[in-house]
Amino acid sequence: MMIGYNLDKIKFATDTATFEKAVEIYESDGVKNFEFVGLGFSAKVRGSKGDFYNVFVSAKHYDRGNCDCYLGQNETLCKHLVALAIYVVMRGDKLNAEDKKTISSPECSERLGELSKEELTRIKKDIALAMKYIKSYTGPSKIWFAYQDSLCEGCARLSKIVSELPVSEQMAKLLVDMLLRLDKKISYGVDDSDGTVGGFIEEVVLMLQEFVKIDSKCIRAFKKLCGKETMFGWEEPLAKIFDEQDID
């Protein structure tokens, strides 16, 4: 049976708390009686008090299925369904530290360095793929929440990418270009009503300010922002840093 998701999809599209609880269930052998059923998979999944719930997850969408726990009965994604989805893609194999690592917001690596031409090309490709989850909203109101989930997933994927980048002028330029692309997306129809994308942008701006403290040459990357007006004015602190420095 073809599976329409992988572990990255589950991790980046699920809120951190639910994913971590699902991992605990999976690693403690809490998924029992796993089997193929119709267009998906079923199992008994252990709850917090040791009781087992009947769970079904679609083979195509990890967040579609049912669970007879309280949340599941109210059509809310629960840790039991996510634990079963993890079992579907892992089939009992051990999760490593990277598999379980979640990043809720971008963080400065505090590690100096530059990327090779090949590494830079790969990172740009990864950013482009993550950006696809941040798209204009043109659908009916009934799919608005699913749309917001897509924005969250895109920002989560971007957070992981940028948090692993070394500190250098090269990377500062990459991040500035990424922020400008996100700003353009917002101006062309991204519905950021809940501030997911805007919040991510603000956190990357703070991250870039940390870059400057570690390597002052990163300031040069901010020249592109001078004279620009972005949707939320996020460029102002970075442009100010550039203006206050005597750097050509």
Structure in a nutshell:
The chain contains ten helices and four strands. It has 248 residues and is of the alpha+beta class.
What does the model show?
The chain is α+β, with helices and mostly antiparallel strands. The chain has 2 domains: 7-100, no CATH class; 117-243, no CATH class. The chain is 48% helix and 10% strand. It contains 10 helices and 4 strands. Strands 1-2-3-4 form a 4-stranded antiparallel β-sheet. Helix 6 packs antiparallel against helix 7, helix 7 packs parallel to helix 9 (196-214) and helix 8 (169-187) packs antiparallel against helix 9. The longest helix is centred in the middle third of the chain and has 20 residues, at 144-163. The chain is elongated. The mean pLDDT is 94.
Q: Roughly what percent helix?
A: 40-55%
Mean pLDDT: 94
Structural class: alpha+beta
The run of helices and strands is: HHEEEEHHHHHHHH
Question: Quick one: biggest sheet?
Answer: 4 strands, antiparallel
Spatial separation of the terminal alpha carbons = 59 Å
What does the overall shape look like?
elongated
What topology emerges from the helices and strands here?
Blueprint: H1 7-13, H2 16-27, E1 31-37, E2 40-46, E3 52-58, E4 65-67, H3 70-73, H4 79-90, H5 97-100, H6 117-131, H7 144-163, H8 169-187, H9 196-214, H10 236-243
Antiparallel strand pairs: 1-2, 2-3, 3-4
